[in-house]
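Q: Got a minute? One more chain.
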Amino acid sequence: MACVTDESWVALPRMLSERLSLREEEAKEEEEPGFFDSESAAYRLEKVFPVYALGIQKPESESESDPVVVADSSDDPIWDAVREEAKLEAEKEPILSSFLYASILAHDCLEQALGFVLANRLQNPTLLATQLMDIFTNVMMHDRDIQRSARLDVQAFKERDPACLSYCSALLYLKGYLALQVYRVAHSLWSQGRKVLALALQSRVSEVFGVDIHPASKIGEGVLLDHGTGVVIGETAVIGNRVSLMQGVTLGGTGKEIGDRHPKIGEGALIGASATILGNIKIGRGAMIAACSLVLKDVPPHSMVAGIPAKVIGYVDEKDPSLTMKHDATKEFFENVAVKFRDARSAGGQTSEKSDGST
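A: Always. Here it is, folded:
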């Protein structure tokens, strides 16, 4: 991460302007047309990168007693990896070089890049990209918890999702990751009493990404929303650290009651695709919910449940099944459960016999 200075807020337009001038001079010397050498360059940039066309505004002045959180960009391996990956991708696909430059390489830290990407994805005629970028960047640069969570989340996507090619691709393309980061900003705004703005962000995320997370819910760090499509998380839901949720998961209520009415998901739990968990119930730490299950009762820690309604069908050895992402109830799994159950009963019987003989 890096400090956001007064100069950095005007750096991008200046850098772009310098790059335009340089490309125009090179094109004149070589007498060859290029992307940046025509009068339509500004129009093209406006169509691709609306923030540039609208201008990047410096955020409202902050009081001296409320400085921006500063971190050393030289000690941020995630951001370093994102930049290196973006450079390599630009070399492999020159047609994306301008996109990668504007989205990642032109920024000083992960927060600025993330704010830029989110602003451009969520903008509409009444929520301008510049306004959204100011909101996202201001909140993220002042909140160390969000900074930490954003990095642990992207690491979770890279390590657990085999379709995630790189940290860079998660930041640019994976809507589960992007929706989660907007939630974190909205949750911070909700906590500050800015509920209308938080709900506006929730609405845009639902429209654009198909992910509906209430800003009042509480979500830990290192969380994976695989695909993200159709995920619904209610107002009083709580999700622990290192949880993995597949597409179509619903953490909802059971009626019109108010108050604490949504599920509580323990750390390391793995929730299968289209699982529905309703009511103020607890899903134990390291539990595994099979795909399409309907869960209406508490689930013990490290247990596997399946069915409609869901019932315990076995137990898992992993401390955090969310990390292994093995959530298929295969024949081998059931055979292993049966053997362990038989051995446990045999051991229990032998212990009972020894106990009876010693008395």
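A: The chain is about 50% helix and 10% strand.
Q: Perfect, thanks.
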